[in-house]
Design brief:
Keywords: Coiled coil. The chain has about 180 residues and is mostly helical. Helices cover about 75% and strands about 5% of the residues. The radius of gyration is 31 Å and the shape is elongated.
């Protein structure tokens, strides 16, 4: 039985006689991957092993070790985010500047075509179409400039923010930027 992987004891009256049957079985059957309908996780095995060796005190020590390890991982993640955020913001700023330049070029081309149509006495509908297209592009340009300004402000503020604020705002920024880009397309 030491190689048993899955054990289902529900509706078994025997388990009622063991107060901490999950710990008991995990300590005695370390190869279990499922007990009842729940998977056995590595941290749970660590806690049960410590409990089996040192009792409740060992269990508490192991829980604290696991918490410390998780806190260390979170701190490392925060530091990595902190390192990557300036790069992320700079790449987004470049992206917006590139798109702004493209839209400005399109607007200039449309205005030049409009002037040609005016000089050639083209139909009013062609001129109106170019005006509407130019206005639409100008609206996109205004939105992109506003987003770019917001990104620059965020870039300036980033140095004064706490790490947790940076992590939260990064997700919010990505979502808002994606929504705006989807609207522009």
């Amino acid at each position: 039985m030491p190689k048993l992987k899955c054990l289902y004891l529900q509706r078994n009256n025997y388990i009622r006689s063991i107060q901490i049957y999950r710990k008991y079985y995990l300590a005695n059957l370390p190869e279990l991957t499922y007990l009842e309908t729940q998977p056995v996780f590595p941290n749970e095995l660590r806690i049960v092993d410590a409990w089996g060796k040192l009792g409740k005190e060992g269990e508490q020590i192991e829980r604290q070790k696991i918490k410390d390890e998780e806190d260390t991982k979170k701190q490392e993640y925060r530091e990595e985010i902190k390192k990557q955020l300036p790069i992320y913001l700079q790449s987004k700023i470049k992206f917006f500047q590139k798109n702004i330049n493209a839209i400005e070029t399109e607007i200039q081309e449309m205005q030049a075509r409009k002037q040609n149509h005016i000089v050639q006495n083209s139909q009013e509908i062609e001129i109106t179409f170019l005006d509407d297209s130019t206005n639409q592009k100008q609206s996109q340009l205004n939105e992109m400039n506003e987003l770019l300004d917001n990104m620059k402000v965020r870039q300036i503020r980033q140095n004064s923010m706490t790490e947790s604020q940076l992590i939260e705002q990064r997700g919010d920024q990505q979502e808002k930027i994606q929504i705006k880009l989807d609207e522009i397309d």
